């Protein structure tokens, strides 16, 4: 703290001392100047260029897979009769695609729910994420 010489009262003059702040800032500047070259990559590689003008906004949606189940337990995959083993293998192949197609399950009005549940369980076990049911409005 310093005292004002021109005032006769000898009152203290409040002034902020910025010297320590400047010292700290200079030390930080020197630290950043020393460490900045260390942050640079040592190995030079030529990165591939991305062509963003031809990029589609979204992938085209995959057509849905339709599984129909009759009352007697017959299963149809896209209107083609299949066995449960063939259904499992076809759905496991479809589950690997990107984007993954949705599965629509259609059942007769008199088909037991147990049979439809088995088909849904097979689809989910093969990795199908979107499994839905198809119904008609009354």
User: Largest sheet, if any?
Assistant: 5 strands, mixed
Strand content: 15-25%
Count of β-strands: 7
Rounded to an integer in angstroms, the radius of gyration calculated over CA atoms is 36 Å
Q: Identify low-pLDDT runs.
A: none
Please give the count of helices. Answer: 3
Mean pLDDT, all residues:
85
> Strand sequence of the main sheet, in spatial order?
5-4-3-6-7
Structure classification: alpha/beta
Please give the alpha-carbon distance between the first and last residues. Answer: 90 Å
Helix content: 25-40%
Give the overall shape.
Answer: elongated
Topology order in helix (H) and strand (E) letters: EEHEEEHEHE
In brief, what are we looking at here?
By secondary structure, this protein is an alpha/beta fold. The protein is built from 3 helices and 7 strands; from the N terminus they run ββαβββαβαβ. It has helices spanning 19-39, 84-95, 113-125, and strands spanning 2-3, 12-13, 65-69, 75-77, 80-82, 103-107, 131-133.
Structure, explained:
By secondary structure, the chain is α/β, with parallel strands linked by helices. Helix content is 33%, strand content 17%. It has a 5-stranded mixed beta sheet. A two-stranded antiparallel sheet has the order 1-2. The longest helix has 21 residues, at 19-39.
């Amino acid at each position: 703290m310093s005292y004002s010489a021109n005032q006769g009262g000898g009152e203290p003059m409040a002034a902020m001392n910025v010297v320590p702040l400047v010292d700290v800032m200079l030390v930080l500047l020197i630290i950043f100047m020393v460490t900045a070259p260390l942050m640079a990559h040592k190995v030079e590689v030529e990165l591939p260029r991305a062509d963003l003008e031809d990029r589609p906004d979204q992938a085209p949606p995959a057509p849905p897979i339709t599984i129909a189940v009759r009352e007697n337990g017959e299963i149809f995959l896209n209107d083609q009769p299949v066995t449960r083993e063939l259904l499992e293998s076809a759905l496991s192949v479809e589950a690997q695609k990107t984007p993954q197609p949705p599965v629509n399950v259609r059942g007769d009005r008199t088909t037991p729910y147990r049979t439809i549940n088995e088909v849904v369980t097979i689809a989910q076990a093969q990795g199908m994420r979107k499994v839905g049911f198809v119904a008609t409005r009354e």
